[in-house]
Every structure is written in C-alpha cells, then in structure tokens.
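Posting here for the record, re: zinc ion.
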Amino acid sequence: MTALKDSPLVLGFETSCDETGVGIVRGNTLLADAVASSVEEHARFGGVVPEVASRAHLEAMVPTVQRALSDAGVTLADIDAIAVTAGPGLAGALLVGAAAAKAYALALDKPIYGVNHLAAHICVDQLEHGPLPEGCVAMLVSGGHSSLLFVPDVTGDVQPLGQTIDDAAGEAFDKVARVLGLGFPGGPLIDKAAREGDPEAIAFPRGLTGPRDAPLDFSFSGLKTAVARWVERRERAGDKIPLADVAASFQEAVVDVLTRKAILACKESGADHLLIGGGVAANSRLRVLAEERAAKAGIRVRVPRPNLCTDNGAMVAALGSELVRRGRTPSHLDFPSDSSQAVVDVVVR
Ligand code: KG4
Ligand code: ZN
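Prediction output follows.
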C-alpha cells in the first residue's frame, strides 16, 4: 500500500480537443506519452471540427493505449489507477476519452479520477522539474484557454486570477496565421516566420493594458482585427506584405501582454514561481521574454518541454498520480464530462 501511495502507476487519457493522448507515469516519473493527433484532418478547415475530432479519438484510442503500454514496458494488469480529462473541452471528444477510461477502470477494477484539463496542464511540470512549489502562479495559454491562476494545491485549490474575455492566445495565433496565409495550426508557423522579422516594425495594440482595464484579464480579439486591417490596407494599396515583420510584431504584442500580466499576478499574490503551460508556452519568444522579465522581478520560471506543453495524456496521468499520493477520493464511475468545467473543480465526483 505504501508503495502504491508513493509511486502509483497511473494511466492517463486526454481527448479534450484534437489530440488522443495516453500517458503512463509512475509517481513523478514519465514512462510513456503516446499521442495521436488529428490536426491534419482539420487543417483544410482552418480550425478543429468537433465531429471529426471525436471520430478520430474513437479510431485512435485502442492503438494509442497499446503504444503507451509498450513504450512504458508495462501491462494493463500493472496499472494502479486511471485518470481522464473530464473537462473543459469539446463535448463529444471528452465523451470518447471518458468512455474509454471508464471501460478500462471497470475491466481492471481500479479507481478512476475525472480531472480538470487545466490542472493537468499545471501538474505535468512535476514530471520534468519535480514537485510544484506551494502557491505558484500558473499561466495557461493554448488554443482553448488563456488563464492566470494561483495554485496553492494543484489537487484541490486552484484559484482563477484572470482570463481572456474573448479569444484565447493560441486562437489569435491561429487566426492571424490564416490572415497571413501561413496554414494551421498557426502558432509554430508564426513563431518561425517571426525569427526573421522586426518585433518593433509595427506597433500593434496591447489589449486590456489601460489604467481602467482589469489588470489580470486578457483580450486578443482587437489585436487580431488590427493585424487583419493592417494587412488589408497594404493589399489594397498593392504593397507587398512584410510577412516576417507582421508575424514578429503581432507575436511581440501577445507575449508582451502575457508576460507583463503574469509577472503582475506573481507580485500581487506573493508567488516567487511562475509556471507556464499550454500550447502557446512552446513559443520561443514567450519563453525568452518571460525569463527576462521574471529574472528582473526575482521570480523563477518553470516551463515544461514543448511536447508536454501541448495536450497529452502524460499530464493527466501526472495529476492522477498526485491525487493518489495525496489520498484524494476517486470519482464515481458515472461521473459526468463537462465541456465548460470550472477551473476550481479539479476532480469531478
Ligand atoms: O494546448 P494545445 O495543444 O491545445 C489546446 O488545448 O488548445 O494548444 C494548441 C495551440 C494552438 O493554437 C497553436 O497555434 C498554439 O497552441 N501553439 C503555439 C506554438 N505552438 C503551438 N503558439 C505560439 N507559438 C508556438 N510555438
Ligand atoms: Zn490544453
């Protein structure tokens, strides 16, 4: 029993968007992180199509579980507990993951934890950088969310500090990439194009940074529109679009606001650690600027490696493992999936 509590072998499922993720951890040690993505099936639509994602999860599920087991060198009989994203995310996609996880839990007669996707994005960093410090600030930035959170305890006490009032940060990257004709998903393509550009070439707006604006909320919709209008004006005038400069200036506007507000959140909550997660945390400029500004403020930055930042099953397994170790009560087998699950609900019963 002690061994189980200290280093449980946990199978984690993630299907909130277009990645079918199955991860296996023992304690805080990552054993397998199998991901099957349907991103290419969505590319021609310029965004994730929910029904296509659900179908792809269904097809990928069993082979991805088998790949994870084989990568980890374990069998289903070895598994101590199961964790699965209960929400937030695409309703149909969540259901496929929950149904699969519940079937394995029932067949293996093991406890199951229906967990919050955002808490999993935070907890994954334990696999890389060890136990989370008490009371850190987490900034989660992806295609679906942009939030600042105060995290006294990732298994039960996650407090929202601020969030986007319109588009998520990754959504802004994806939409601007479309305006620039770069393809989908746009984040990595803009990141790459921006390397050749001047971040100060165009002064794009910094959303919600006025004196009367909510200091820890984000807004990226105005920025996206500003880029689209700027490009349209040039096109109408018959000018060539300086792609790298637009990409670099847009990216700078996003990461300037993200890092400014993240540091402010740390100062206001007295946290000396800032954790950054979600797909946009893979952005090279965000990583550099966050380090730079945090160092000046005496704050330590923790960012998981890129493939642990984007959606994956290992992050869900990491949170499951922490829940087992802290002796938290598992979910009932009939727990609901919740596409708009609040961040304060870390485990659904
Ligand atoms: O966490 P994630 O894989 O899925 C969601 O839960 O949304 O994040 C995907 C998002 C996409 O919007 C993608 O464009 C963005 O993360 N992204 C990036 C980079 N890599 C992925 N954004 C900016 N720079 C990157 N290098
Ligand atoms: Zn995510």
